[in-house]
Amino acid sequence: MASGRSHDRATRRLALPFGLLWWPALGPAGMAVAAGAFLLGGLWLSPDLDTHSNATRRWGPLRLLWWPYRRLLSHRSLLSHSPLLGTSLRLLWLALLVLLGCAALAPLGAPPLGDLLQRGQALWHSQRPLLLTAFVGLEASSWLHLLQDGDPIPRVPRLLRRFRSKTRRRRRPAGPRP
Predict the structure, then answer these.
(1) Where in the chain are the domains?
(2) Of 113, 127, 148, 160, which has the fewest Cβ atoms less than 10 A away?
């Protein structure tokens, strides 16, 4: 398993080459979005947000936003360290926080939730290739992290491990053990 410094170093070194892969298809904007998303995903939205990590510390005072996430997920769980699922869950967590923040700050002039959702939908329709590129960049940095840890397949959740070990005990044939 790589250290936090190793994860950060690899993310920084590979962000530009990853971005350059997108230049032929999406031009300079695609390259910038891909490289930026790769950096953002590796340095601020790392799979290690479920621990006290460099990524968590980078959030500064806002790291408290990740406290419930850390409490609900065990480190290297299926929900935090799975390809696609882990990145999606972190993005959904951030979206939920933004929506809750807007709802709470509506009396102070924050945009209503309906307007926010409408703007998001308009952004999706007008910038879909760049948004998909951003998601791929976030996911690619997550894969880099998982591969550096040595296994991109996360641990089976505790509940399923218990169930599996109980069924294995029941299936053993009776008789003398070797």
Answers:
(1) 4-88+129-156
(2) 160
Amino acid 153: pLDDT:
60
**In this model, does residue 166 exceed pLDDT 70?**
no
Mean pLDDT of 2-30: 88
- If you average pLDDT over every residue of the chain, what do you get? 83
Tokens representing 56 are 């968590």
Q: By C-alpha distance, which of 89, 50, 56 is closest to 72?
A: 50
Question: How far apart, in Å, are the Cα atoms of 1 and each of 31, 59, 74, 123, 149?
Answer: 30, 23, 17, 38, 4
Residues whose CB falls within 8 Å of the CB of residue 5, separated by 6 or more in sequence, listed in order: 54
CA distance 100 to 130: 26
- The full DSSP string for 88-154 is HHHHHHHHHHHHHHHHHHGGGTPPPHHHHHHHHHHHHHHHHHHHHHHHHHHHHHHHHHHHHHT-SSP
